[in-house]
């Protein structure tokens, strides 16, 4: 499970937020299915080399978002992704493949993850919601 979760201590984003974002993404794209058990707080913290409280905070925020649920005897389990708006493409294999291609292209060009995210946000802002074709 922790193979997909990493924490970059040099990143200005707090470690709990890095964990929350990564788990949220894995749930949204269906890698973590409803009913999947997450590692215990202590186990994940030990694997990542961080404090248990950091993982606990990430889990708490995911639980408040309705993505996971902590159960006494069954541990922490995935409830599922949030409900999508009608017509959304959440989990669509073609979109995921395109995003993966974008990431690989950016890395090959030496673009940092933060810069890539900023570029994507900028393009989304330029093209607005509901626009079907991105303009150069």
The assigned structural class equals mainly alpha
What form results from the Cα inertia axes? globular
Order of helices and strands: HEHHEEHH
Global mean pLDDT: 83
Keywords:
single chain; 136 residues; mainly alpha; 3-stranded antiparallel beta sheet; 5 helices; 3 strands; globular
Quick description:
With 136 residues, this protein is mostly helical. The protein has 5 helices and 3 strands, in the order H-E-H-H-E-E-H-H.
What does this structure look like?
This protein has 136 residues and is mainly α. The protein contains five helices and three strands. Strands 1-3-2 form a three-stranded antiparallel beta sheet. The longest helix has 16 residues, at 93-108. The radius of gyration is 17 Å and the shape is globular. The chain starts with 14 loop residues before the first helix and ends in a 9-residue tail after the last helix.
Describe the secondary structure blueprint for this structure.
Elements: H1 15-28, E1 37-38, H2 41-48, H3 52-64, E2 68-71, E3 75-78, H4 93-108, H5 113-127
Antiparallel strand pairs: 1-3, 2-3
Helix pairs in contact: 1-3, 2-3
């Amino acid at each position: 499970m922790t193979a997909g979760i990493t924490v970059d201590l040099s990143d200005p984003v707090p470690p709990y937020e890095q964990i929350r974002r990564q788990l949220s993404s894995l749930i949204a794209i269906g890698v973590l299915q409803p009913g999947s058990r997450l590692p215990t707080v202590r186990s994940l913290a030990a694997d990542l080399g961080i404090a248990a409280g950091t993982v606990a905070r990430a889990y708490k925020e995911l639980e408040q978002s309705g993505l996971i649920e902590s159960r006494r005897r069954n541990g922490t389990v995935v409830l599922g992704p949030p409900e999508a708006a009608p017509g959304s493409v959440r989990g669509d294999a073609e979109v995921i493949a395109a995003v993966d291609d974008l990431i690989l292209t950016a890395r090959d060009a030496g673009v940092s993850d933060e810069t890539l995210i900023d570029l994507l946000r900028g393009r989304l802002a330029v093209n607005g919601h509901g626009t079907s074709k991105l303009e150069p």
